[in-house]
Every structure is written in C-alpha cells, then in structure tokens.
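Need tokens for this chain, all 235 residues.
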Amino acid sequence: MGALQGTYCGPAPEPGELWLTWNLDPVLLLLLGLFALRIGRTRLGAWAVAVLAIVFVSPLCPLSAALFSARVVHHVLLVAVAAPLIALAWPAREVRSIAVPFLVSTGILWAWHLPRAYDLALGNMAVYWVMQATLLGTAVAFWRAVFDPRPGSARALLFILAGFMQMALLGALLTFAPEPLYAIHAVAPLAWGFTPLGDQQLGGLIMWVPAGLPFAVWGAFLARRGWRTMVQGAS
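Here are the structure tokens for all 235 residues:
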C-alpha cells in the first residue's frame, strides 16, 4: 500500500510551476484514448473526452492537490459537465427511475466531502480513483435518467433543479463553516495567497453559485427539446 500513498497529480505545485505540471501518466492517457474510441466519434463524446482531459491531464489536476477551491472546480466539471455529455453521447438502454440515481449521486457527492473521506481520497491513490469513479459513474447514471425522454421534460427539469440545490446546499455549508475542514489543504493554500479557511470558503462559493451555470444550460437544453417534441406532436 505504500506505493499508493500520496496525492494523484501531487505534490501541490508552487504558483510559478503550475503551467509546467501537466499530468502525462501513460495509464491515464491510454484509458482516455480507449474511452475516446468508444464515444469520441460524436461531437458530444469528443467534448466529454476533452473535459476529462482538462480535469485529469491539464494543470487543474495538480492545482486541485493544492487548493480545495480548485478541487471543487474539478468536481463540478466531472459531475455537471463531463457526466451529462457522456450521458448524451452514450445513453442508457433502459431507465426505470430518476429518483434513485439522484439520491445515489447526491449521497456519493456528500459522502466524499466528509473530511475523513476527502482527506483519505487525496492521500491515497487507490481511494482517489474510487472517488473519481463513483462521482463520475453515479453522475452519468443521474444524467442518463434526466435525459431519457420517457418520464417527461417537466419532471426531469425538477430533478435538474434538485441536483443543483443539493450541491448549492453543500457549498453553503462549506462557505459558512467556522474552521477549515480538510487537513490535506492545511498548508498548500498559503503559497497561493489563501488561508485554508479562505480557500474553503471560495470553494463553497463556487459550488454554491457558479456551479449552477451548467445545470441551467442542461435545463435549457431539456426545455428546448421538450418544446420541439410538443410542436412536432401538434403538427
């Protein structure tokens, strides 16, 4: 297990080194290449692979080892941008419920932001990849259910709103927490001009407010699709 200790894409970089810290892990690049072969032939699939590359290959990856706020951006891109793109490019054959994947994905997101679970994931590479796989996998299941046309656009739109609201609530709790919660970010933010608490508050604000933008985009997409379906049915 000793070889698995340490932060993936770490150690946390200094500000002047950030743009030199691209992650060229050959295993990761191979997996992204294979995934691109699976879904990258469509425009949406290609965009999904590009977002995953930003998350795991670009300097955002090592920056998220230093700053909790960067980790929040990482997670928002994963669950609210990459996951819905994958869901559209690779839809489910059968969807039985929206509520179940919503509850599961919400529970996974909140569980990984518990301080002990979060610190464990960022300090052990095996647990880190369990975190990434469960966040992405449950989010894809949620978005597949949302985009399935059978339940109806109105109900799906309510679940998109619920998806943002639960993330915003988590962000608000992190913003107003009276002290830093994550030991793994106790030192590195200082090099970037943040206190650990200030970095956590910024992360909470990102999760609370700007994270709503991708949810709004997908809501507008779904509403437009529902309108087109209604117009075609009436004609």
